[in-house]
Design goal:
Helix content: over 70%
Oligomer: single chain
Strand content: under 5%
Distance between the termini: 19 Å
Number of helices: 2
Order of helices and strands: HH
């Protein structure tokens, strides 16, 4: 089990990656459309989602293991 402080760092890292992926979306939409935005944004987005999903504690949301 991870220490509470380290799990917060993981959440912050996931949030930061999600923020950076949103910057790529905004850049594509408002500044300079191009494929490089997707090449940068999509991996950041999926990495952020995986990191954030990994921090969910199953007992916190009421799921029991059998």
């Amino acid at each position: 089990m991870a220490v509470a402080g380290s799990s917060n760092l993981v959440i912050y890292a996931g949030a930061a990656l999600f923020y950076l992926s949103d910057l790529a979306v905004a850049r594509h939409r408002f500044v300079a459309p191009g494929p490089e935005n997707k090449l940068i944004g999509l991996p950041l987005y999926y990495a952020a989602q995986l990191i954030l999903a990994s921090t969910v504690n199953k007992t916190r949301v009421g799921i029991r293991s059998h």
